[in-house]
Amino acid sequence: MKKKTEIKMEKEKIVETKCNDKNCHIHGNLKVRGKAFEGKVTKKFHKRITIEFERIIYIRKYERYAKSKTKIHARLPICMENEINIGDLVKVQECRPLSKIIHFVVIKKIKDKDKK
Ligand SMILES: [Zn+2]
Question: What band does 112 get if pLDDT is binned at 50, 70 and 90?
Fold first, then answer.
């Protein structure tokens, strides 16, 4: 019985670490380049998430800074789908346009939702 469960565990590990996703920056042939951002996950869909982060912009008329929010749609590789949840802090990097709105891919998870 023990052996069987061990084999099962190993198989699951292989499934976790490999994926058939073409648009995965680790296993597929998707190259990442360009800008990288960190942000909070606000929405999660199949193979896609949206992140949000604040940035400071300078307004010349008032000679002052203002906060503004930026929303980015990013591709979520299948091998990371279980790992990332709403509220997590993740890092995304630019890649080639995968669709009309997606030209970023999730690289790694920085922080959990619960940990501070
Ligand atoms: Zn993968």
Answer: confident
CB-based contacts of 61: which residues, under 8 Å, 6+ apart? none
Q: 70 CA distance to ligand 1 centroid (A)?
A: 27
b/e 71-83 (16+ beta carbons within 10 angstroms → b): ebbbbbbbbbeee
Q: CA-CA distance, 32 to 93, in Å (whole number)?
A: 6
Full-model pTM: 0.75
Centre of ligand 1 from the C-alpha of residue 74, in Å: 15
Fold of 19-111: OB fold (Dihydrolipoamide Acetyltransferase, E2P) (2.40.50)
Position 8: which residue type?
A: K
Dihedral sign (CA 107, 93, 26, 97)? positive
- The residues spanned by each domain of the chain are 19-111
